[in-house]
Amino acid sequence: MEVERDQTVSSPTIPIVDLSNLDKELVARAVVKASQEWGVFQVVNHEIPKELIQSLKKVGTHFFELSSEAEKEAVATPANSKDIQGYVTNSQQDIEDKVDRVDHLFHNLPPPTSVDYRYWPKNPPEYRQVNEEYARQVKKLAENILGWLSEGLGLDREALFNQGFGGGEKAVYTMKINYYPPCRPQANLVLGMQPHTDIHGLTLLVPNEIPGLQVFNDNQWFDVEYNPSVINILIGDPIWRMSNGKYKNVLHRTTLNTEKTRMSWVVLLKPPYDMVIEPLKKHTGDGDEAPKFEPITYGEHVERKVRDKLSKAVMSALLI
Ligand code: OGA
Ligand code: NI
To answer: Could you tell me which residue ranges the Fe2OG dioxygenase domain spans (predicted)?
Structure first.
């Protein structure tokens, strides 16, 4: 099994990292290289059972396709809520607007300090157990990846998770399910999600079989191919800042399908809102590299990005 696709071929592809390789040095190097050059990679042989991922998709699809409006209302994000948790529908917006056209459900995952079961679908009944099991497994994977990324910065394995994300007590894991209904007839003109970099730290994504995710690298967009054995890993803004720009926060977007509904299950790893995000090397005392980023709390970073996005949406609406 290849660890990393040949980077010298004329049409490069998104790196694939085989986590079952016994040479962990090689795995670490592949993760670091992919994060530096692409900010996105796919992992295979990640030890999360195929059946568990299938169940995760099944219970989430059940919520979006079979729940009554009242059941969706029951977990809707309350008006004026500062918390992102809950169900929101944006898929039916005016076709001309350059806005995201996707319904989503956000809910935090355990640890119990951040979880709020009010936002978890009650139906199907196994929703909770499946999501809790997936959370347990995906967290191990996320923390392994942060370990390799820390080592790639010349830091201890725990540095990014503990100093950057607040460690096991404070780091927040959130499930986000995206639901993109088919869009006709102007689908080629319409994006499901506008180009963006992720506001949170690390993204672990599995889609359904409908393609749509695209990532930007070397001045062009690449399709992320569907492969049921992979988990897609994307680097977000906080890791870009913590690594002093060494790891790329990959620009990505999604397209819509004219016939079929696309869905994706995204686990996002976030620092707590009051955590200061800054280049970590500073703390080790041996980094002679000047920090490229001012310290900023994660909460302030989120507010700035949201303000920026709103003003861009208003601008594009005015320019049409
Ligand atoms: C996101 C995102 C991509 C997808 O939720 O931030 O980029 O494939 N999703 O749905
Ligand atoms: Ni994203």
So the answer is: 170-271
Residue 122 located in a structural domain: yes
Whole-number Cα distances in Å, 32 to 51, 245, 279: 29, 13, 17
- Identify which of 56, 54, 16 has the alpha carbon closest to the alpha carbon of residue 225: 16
pTM, rounded to two decimals: 0.92
For residue 88, the Cα-to-chain-centroid distance in whole angstroms is 18
Name the domain count of the chain: 1
Task: Report the helix count and the strand count for the chain, using DSSP H and E.
Answer: 10, 14
Give the span between the Cα atoms of 279 and 246, in whole angstroms. 10
* DSSP per residue, 73-132: HHTBPPTT-SS--EEE--TTS-TTS-S---EEEEEE-SSTTT--GGGS--SSTTHHHHHH
List the end-to-end C-alpha distance of the chain, in Å, as a whole number.
Answer: 50
Relative to the CA of 178, which ligand 1 atom is closest?
Answer: 10
Q: How far apart are CA 311 and CA 93, in angstroms?
A: 17
Query: Collapsing DSSP states into helix, strand and coil, what is residue 7?
Result: coil
Answer whether 249 contacts ligand 1 (Cβ < 6 A). Answer: no
Is any atom of ligand 1 closer than 6 Å to the C-beta of 198?
A: yes
Q: Which two tokens stand for residue 286?
A: 């041996």
| Residue 315 reports pLDDT greater than 70 | no
The range of the structural domain enclosing residue 158 comes to 14-316
